[in-house]
Amino acid sequence: MTNRGIPSAFLRTTLHNGIGRYVCQLQRLTIKFCKEQKQSRGVRDFIENGLVDFAKNNPSVAVYAQVKRHRSPALVAEYLNGKTHIIPVAEKEAAELLEWLDFLRTRSGEDLIRMRKSQHTFSPSIQGAWTPVTNKQVFPPDFTFPNNELFQAHKFTESATDILQRLAKKSTSKTD
């Protein structure tokens, strides 16, 4: 299976969030549920027991509980960039619902993407990439040019075939 259906892009932050101070990107959270349906039992338990604590711990997020008769429960997250994400939470327990809320709270609101590269810059260097040998001296300081040593071929005393044959003889003599 290929990833051609998943859009790819470079990883980026939302408005350099976290450089000055962190701003939670989740603006509004709406919990939609039904008072009577069995699918909404976990959502109703969470609203009774954990919603007030979640709202106290996240004062920057406006939390709304909305009753929708005969509808499946869902979490609707609205972000500062205008994007909306809907998570269906039918038959989820209160602990699972809290994990989903934490997931939505820590997201930036951007769509999930496949990363093209692990690093990227918008202002690349004109000097080229830095490597550990960028500023190393290749030749000793007393080296003068032209030098005939540079143009002479290396003379090997033993060929690669000879080395492999010698190693094969050693390994067979050890096993015998």
Q: Can you give a write-up of this model?
A:
The longest helix is centred in the last third of the chain and has 16 residues, at 160-175. The protein has helices spanning 41-49, 51-57, 94-106, 160-175; strands at residues 8-9, 26-33, 62-67, 74-79, 84-88, 114-115. β4 and β5 (84-88) form a beta hairpin. The protein contains 4 helices and 6 strands, in the order ββααβββαβα. It has a 4-stranded mixed sheet, covered by helices on one side. A two-stranded parallel ribbon has the order 1-6. It is elongated, with a radius of gyration of 32 Å. It is 26% helix and 16% strand. α1 (41-49) packs across α3. It is of the alpha/beta class.
Overall spatial form: elongated
Question: What is the CA–CA distance across the termini?
Answer: 50 Å
- Report the uncertain regions: none
Order of helices and strands: EEHHEEEHEH
